[in-house]
Amino acid sequence: MIELLKPYLLTFIPLFVAVDAIGNIPLFIGMVESLNKKQRQKAIMDSVVTATLMAVLFMFLGKGVLRLLSITIPDFQIAGGALLFVIAVKLLLPGAHRMNLSDGHDKDVGVFPLGTPLITGPAVLTTTLILIDVYGVIPTLISLLVNMFIVWITLARADLVMKVLGISGTRAFSKIMYILLAAIAAMMVRRGIVSAFLSPQ
Predict the structure, then answer these.
(1) Which range among 95-104, 122-131, 179-188 has the greatest average pLDDT?
(2) Comparing C-alpha atoms, which of 50, 72, 65, 69 is closest to residue 196?
(3) What is the pLDDT of residues 158-195, one digit of tens each?
(4) Using only C-alpha atoms, what is the Rg of the chain?
(5) What integer best gives the mean pLDDT of the chain?
(6) pLDDT given at position 153
(7) Is the model's pTM score more than 0.85?
(8) What is the C-alpha to C-alpha distance for residues 183 and 188, in angstroms, rounded to an integer?
(9) Which residues of 141-156 are buried (b: 16+ CB within 10 A; e: fewer)?
């Protein structure tokens, strides 16, 4: 039983870290504070649908794009891991999340910047494609959908989460997630290097 669940757990955790549902809550509240209840619900739905569609499309088309460019999976693991590490380091810096965000008055705030790049950004896309190669499509797809469901729940209950954790607690949680993301990135680079040197040429 544990062995059957292992691929799902090992795909869920990196995606949970990359999506950072809890860490996006303060940004979400700041961007929708001027919207009424109906507009806020629409923004939540738009953001989750956009993020899910982008991630799923990349799951099934990403490898074909790599093949067209003659990029191997070890190549992508090394480059993707390096990119994830840079993203994690940037997110650990003060004020990183404030860059390139909407002011919250855009009616399409759910699509951009909430759906992408805040929920589904480079970290999620890179992690998803690598997880497919390591654990397969089904565990990765299910873990992705579960994470998007968690995003929907956390955004719909954003005010309650903020009351429980507070701004400082939410930020602290995000910092821990970013450190884990950096560690996962280092693991991806290590696996890519090992695969590149040990796989038959």
Answers:
(1) 122-131
(2) 72
(3) 988 888 888 788 878 778 877 877 887 788 788 888 88
(4) 17
(5) 83
(6) 96
(7) no
(8) 9
(9) bebbeebbebbbebbe
Distance from chain centroid for Cα 121: 6
Tokens encoding 199: 């796989």
Whose CA is closest to 30, among 100, 103, 91? 103
Query: In Å, what is the CA distance from 59 to each residue of 64, 65, 141, 160?
Result: 10, 11, 8, 33
Q: Which two tokens stand for residue 48?
A: 């989750």
29 CA to centre of own chain: 19
Burial of 196 (0-12, 13-18, 19+ CB in 10 A): middle
How many other C-beta atoms lie within 10 A of the C-beta of residue 137? 12
Separation of alpha carbons 113 and 63, rounded Å: 25
Q: Which tokens hold the place of 109? A: 């705030």
| Residue located via tokens 């701004």 | 167
